[in-house]
């Protein structure tokens, strides 16, 4: 699916920064569960897709929404969220967000909402920014816990002249939903899809 949109230079620059520069995984877990010292349910740097020339680094688990929100999957995130950011020494970064709902049904509904937002993200980016072209791929369902779903978004920015690739996944275990995002400069040929799927399986398994 290719979608073209035209917008101001400022909007294009902002879209470039959000779409490629900030990889975010959002989580709406109670603040008490998001202690910076309690990372057992979160991805560790070594569990992210390996970078060829740099180690991964991780920030603390933070009991708030990521700011800015991820360009895809960010709109449905609740105001009470926990997240953890990751980065390398180069133009690659990642994010994990986890939301713990009060019931399994609410978690199912929330995961479905995230998937809907991701499935329509390329079109949304194109409509909101005239200088952006976006292409989207769905990489299927992973057989882990209650399931996880993987998406890829490639964006190019006519004015900025950049090409960015992001991978997203949504997974659920019981009442807990996690969103994971990985991003770097490049295109679908540079997407570490198999590695990202392994990262997603690890992330969902660590929710229980």
What does this structure look like?
It is a single chain. 24% of the residues lie in helices and 32% in strands. By secondary structure, the chain is an alpha+beta fold. The protein has one domain (2-205): Protein Transport Mog1p, Chain A (3-Layer(aba) Sandwich), CATH 3.40.1000. Strands 1, 2, 3, 4, 5, 6, 7, 8 and 9 form a nine-stranded antiparallel sheet that branches. A hairpin with a 5-residue loop joins strand 6 (132-142) and strand 7.
The number of distinct helices, counting runs of at least 4 residues, comes to: 4
Low-confidence stretches: 1-37
The number of domains is 1
Question: What number is the mean pLDDT?
Answer: 85
The assigned CATH architecture is: 3-Layer(aba) Sandwich
Straight-line distance between termini = 36 Å
From the 3D structure, determine the CATH topology: Protein Transport Mog1p, Chain A
Overall morphology = globular
Cα-atom Rg, whole angstroms?
16 Å
Helix coverage percent: 10-25%
Which CATH top level class fits? Alpha Beta
Sheet bearing the most strands, described? 9 strands, antiparallel
Report strand %. Answer: 25-35%
Strand segment tally: 9
Order of helices and strands: EHEEEEHHEEEEH
Coarse structural class = alpha+beta
């Amino acid at each position: 699916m290719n979608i073209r949109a035209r917008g101001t230079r400022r909007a294009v620059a902002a879209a470039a920064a959000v779409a490629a520069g900030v990889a975010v995984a959002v989580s709406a877990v109670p603040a008490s569960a998001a202690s910076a010292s309690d990372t057992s349910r979160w991805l560790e740097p070594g569990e992210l897709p390996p970078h060829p020339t740099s180690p991964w680094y991780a920030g603390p688990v933070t009991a708030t929404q990521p700011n800015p929100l991820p360009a895809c999957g960010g709109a449905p995130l609740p105001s009470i969220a926990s997240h953890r950011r990751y980065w390398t020494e180069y133009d690659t970064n990642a994010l994990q967000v986890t939301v713990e709902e009060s019931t399994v049904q609410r978690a199912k509904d929330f995961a479905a909402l995230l998937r809907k937002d991701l499935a329509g993200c390329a079109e949304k980016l194109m409509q909101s920014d005239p200088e952006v072209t976006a292409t989207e791929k769905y990489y299927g369902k992973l057989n882990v816990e209650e399931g996880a779903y993987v998406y890829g978004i490639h964006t190019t920015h006519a004015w900025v002249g950049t090409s960015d690739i992001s991978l997203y996944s949504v997974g659920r275990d019981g009442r807990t939903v996690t969103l994971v995002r990985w991003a770097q400069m490049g295109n679908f040929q540079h997407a570490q899809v198999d590695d990202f799927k392994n990262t997603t399986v690890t992330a969902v398994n660590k929710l229980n």
